[in-house]
Design a protein that fits this description.
single chain, alpha/beta, 11 strands
Length: 245
């Protein structure tokens, strides 16, 4: 993932525009889930961003280290109270190495999809496995592709329609990709931001984990351990590294 789509233009208003994702009702179940898996050990966040999860997780007593490609996002994270407790390495989380091992590593909010090729996603699983202790866990929160909810012949699917923001996904089924288009309306001005993704089905992610020496431990429909069903729009999956070696 060589392109940084989260430069200064996005970073300067990221926390403001996604404030709803930092609400305690959203964050607390995630932090509780991850702290439970950490078992007193250390956690590695891939795509740490401005610290929405890392900071409250560190406040729970978990030692956290993050990897992120965007220096602009990390600069905002480092300006926040408590950030001095969390180490950050700048780099592509599919390949960047940290001189430490961890009990749990995690990717939230569809961030695995920022890796836009299968090779990059496989590399990410392998990179995580190299950083995990035996029996350590890799947690990914990601959407289930919404193809069956598309009307016949359509490739566009809205995901947010409001007075200040319009968002829709444009699917490229032939290449297993999508582009999320954002239109932000502020003081009569319209700002356009489009971000490419690669979607993957749960079974494909399970295979990536197996290639990296990990097996599925549990899969839920959400952070509160809601059942994962055929109607789930997203999943929280946990893969465990082999205890050997």
């Amino acid at each position: 993932m060589s392109d940084d789509y989260f430069g200064e233009r996005v970073a300067e208003r990221f926390d403001e525009r996604y404030a709803h994702l930092a609400d305690a009702t959203v964050v607390e179940p995630i932090v509780a889930f991850l702290a439970d898996l950490a078992r007193g050990g250390a956690a590695l966040e891939l795509g740490i961003g401005t610290g929405r999860i890392a900071l409250p997780l560190a406040e729970r007593g978990v030692r956290v280290h993050g990897i992120d490609l965007s220096e602009a996002m990390v600069a905002r994270f480092r300006a926040k109270p408590g950030a001095e407790q969390v180490g950050v390495t700048i780099g592509d989380f599919a390949t960047t190495a940290v001189e430490a091992t961890f009990t749990v590593a995690y990717l939230v909010s569809n961030t695995i999809m920022n890796l836009t090729t299968q090779d990059e996603q496989v590399a990410c699983f392998c990179n995580v496995a190299e950083h995990l202790e035996p029996n350590g866990c890799f947690v990914v929160e990601v959407l289930v592709p919404g193809l069956r909810r598309l009307p016949p012949g359509e490739t566009f699917q809205p995901f947010d329609v409001g007075p200040t923001h319009l968002g829709f996904d444009e699917y490229d089924v032939a290449h297993q990709g999508l582009v999320s288009h954002h239109y932000w309306i502020d003081d009569g001005e319209v700002e356009v931001f489009s971000l490419p993704f690669r979607y993957a089905w749960p079974s494909e992610l399970d295979l990536m984990a197996r290639l990296a020496g990990m097996t599925l431990r549990e899969r839920w429909g959400g952070w509160k351990r809601e059942p994962f069903t055929s109607d789930s729009n997203a999943h929280v999956s946990v893969w465990e590294k082999s205890g050997e070696g």
